[in-house]
Amino acid sequence: MNILVNYVVIPLVKIVVIVAILSGGIAYLTLMERKVIARLQHRLGPMRVGWHGILQPIADGLKFIIKEDIIPIKADRFVFTIAPGISLVPAFIVFSVIPFGPPDSLWGTGGYVTDVNIALLFAVAVSSVGVLGVILGGWASNSKYPLLGALRSSAQMVSYEVAMGFGIIGVLLVANSLSLVEIVEKQRSMGVWFFFVQPIAFLIYYFCGMAETNRLPFDLPEAETELVGGFHTEYSGFRFSLFFIAEYANMITVSSLAVTLFFGGWLRPFSSVAALSFLDIIPPPLWFVIKVLIFLYIFIWVRGTLPRFRFDQLMRIGWKVFLPVAMANVMVTGAILLKFL
Amino acid sequence: MEHDIFGAIDEKTVLDANQVVINMGPQHPSTHGVLRVKLTLDGERVIDTDCIIGYLHRGTEKIVENRPYAAGVPYFDRTDYVAAVSNNLGYVECVEKMLGVEVPPRVQYIRTMMTEFQRIASHLLWLGTHALDIGAMTVFLYAFREREEILKLFEALFGARLTIHAFRIGGLWQDLPVGFLDACRRFSDTIGEHINEYEGLLTNNRIWLERTRDIGVISAQDAIDLGLTGPVLRGSGVNYDVRKARPYSAYADFDFDIPLGVHGDTYDRYLVRIEEMRQSNRIIQQCITRMPTGPIRAKAPRVIKPPVGEYYHSVEGPKGELGYYIVSEGKTSPYRVRIRPPTFINLQALKKLVKGHLVADVVAIIGTLDIVLGEIDR
User: Fold this and answer.
1) Residues B197 and B344 in one domain
2) Is A61 in the B-facing interface, judged by CB distances under 8 Å?
3) In which domain, by residue range, is B46 found?
4) In this structure, which of A121, A187, B6, B260 has its CB flanked by the most CB atoms within 10 Å?
């Protein structure tokens, strides 16, 4: 009975809650993006649906559902149909291992769905499956622009996943664990966020994360002004919206992982300084959300500021800059740890 | 011919089965209207391009042949529809040249000033769309913010914003409204600041440099051979600007520089246009301070019947040399009107500029040529 409750009921409840919050979060992330970009560009953004456009995401969602679902005659129907799902689901799955609060929170059940000892590996592996959806979607459309988008996407994935992996190894060396809960706990016990220990690893992780989520300046697989939407050119209605949601879910995933790995997850700032304990008035999950929001803001800010890289330049940066720097970072970190600790 | 401008296609790549022919346009967000470009790609590398135009053909030149001279002016609002004032100026001055009418200095100053406003507006639109094509979306909205101010000035003086029928043969429709010069001065005082703002986002931006430097390089000789004009020509370092070469309107009175590029790449053309906006602003400031008083109409005949003959008059439009060639048989409407559209001729360079670049560069190069399909297809 206890096993049933501990391993089925409680995780299921948590999963439902997380999926609900995440879906709502994604919907309002689109609004946030539109509002922030509008602010950067001296305009108002959505203003019509509800107070300051507060109901805009709902209107958008309804519109997507009502629209005609078109599958091109020459498309590979089966793959075309499942591709958006392949892109979307992994982004949600990653959240099963991301800790939102300390292990003793939520009446001792832990502020996470599950704490597996290979959580980080799991997160990285699962989130890269999402790119497969993009590639399959582009391929199955049987059309030239989506094909180019899919090609770019696969090349981009290969160039960036590697550097990203090496970037994360720097954190692993310091934390000595793959469990995300333990990584955060380690940051608490060391009294310093890993960003200050591993700034280079963070930068590489974050840039590669931008590339993985297809956001500007790395949004080559979509590149509206070049490939007319790239891999999702042929998609319409609800299927398109799944790709769209996947992109925003990935933004949240990358930001959440960045917060967990480098910015102390649920920890308040200066968690080791007792004098600042009044900051505890904000519960740990809220600290987590605040930090994630900051990273999401940076995503949007970057989109509002930078032009787009070209395909070959992106590859060059991935292979010739990020990868060597990430490897050097791993070696230097390893050497220092070996010598001094 | 000494050298083949377009270059021969490599036999080996033609026989290679890995080529993909892809259609860019006429419905594509970055072809600036209804340009259709047939790209032959090897992976993402462009082997060959073919421009297909005519989707916006309205027979402007033929229509104008069947209208009285004065009724032709509004038709030229619609050729280069983002630079209506410049088009009007070219046509109106050509007809005035035919009639031998000398317009009063106040008219010339107002025309010059408004044409320079139009140049800034056109360059702002180019800047916005060019940056948007390369992915910098904020510049687009910043540029439109300032363009809006210019359109408001147009609305105050001409009564319309886009297709404005700016000038009349022999003068102007109305004198400057009260407070108009103050409004111009306010704009002119702030635009420099705003141009710095755009430059802050782009000029030293690493990604922008990577995306525009050494992209679409054309040598001065090739540019001349292809008949390019305007910023596209000056980006290659050829000092040819109709405003200096054959001064018209009141340009001879003003002090301004012609910015020149060095490498003839997309970045240089960008710098040239940015600097041209500053120089246009200089002209505007001189116009405002030295604005003469006097009549706003010359004594032009009520029924316009130019003497028999062929006439050509060209002005420096925002996009290049904009010429009007009119043949008169002494009747109330022209026998033949032919426009020398700068972007139609500049578009010829696309094939050469794009060759060997990637798909992403195609949109950058289309952007840097600053084409307007209304003018290309007429």
Assistant:
1) yes
2) no
3) 12-52
4) A187
